[in-house]
Amino acid sequence: MFSNDHKAGITPAAAALTQLASAQNFKPTMGVKIVEEVSKMKEDFRLQTAATRLEVYQLLLRLVQDQAVAGELQHKYGSSSGFTLDLLSMCQHERDPKNLMIWFKIIKTLVAEYSPSEDVTNEIFKAFSNYFPITLRESTTPIGVTPEELKSALRECFSAHDRLARLAFPYLIQRLDQGDSMKVTVKVSNSNLVTHDHADVFRTTSS
What we know:
Elements: H1 7-21, H2 28-39, H3 50-64, H4 67-77, H5 82-91, H6 97-112, H7 118-129, E1 134-136, H8 147-158, H9 165-177, E2 184-188, E3 194-195
Parallel strand pairs: 1-2
Antiparallel strand pairs: 2-3
Helix pairs in contact: 1-3, 2-4, 3-6, 6-8
């Protein structure tokens, strides 16, 4: 399902698998297989609707937070964390605020609860630090996410584990020196896709 372009079936499939993963007799090896299959969407993932992507993010969060599934993933992939790199590649274009809230939780979990190598940690850091500073454009469409919630979720990625300290401190100092020149803005558009803009009116670091 996830490796083929069956767009109409991805949303219900992801929702059903999320429920299945909550079942008492759910096998951790099945969770590993689901993560691998989801990753096969690759570039096609960003072409899905925001609602479809949200279902997929919720499925992934449920799986990576499951201790038994996490154990199987780490046993199979070790510190090389190949599945993590696949997820980072698949989700790198996300700009929808609701989806980012879940994606940041996934990233935080991968940093705090797994044991990625130094190289993988570098890639994880790049994935979320590219969103800093972040702000949310005003929209007439209610989205259920506030700018402060979005900023807080991103900050939690930076503070997820002390293995990030060697990357976070020099990066944040450098960004402070850049002033207001670089910003990432997320907004829900009429098509439910999200745009980004590097020029905005306030800084995440000011709040």
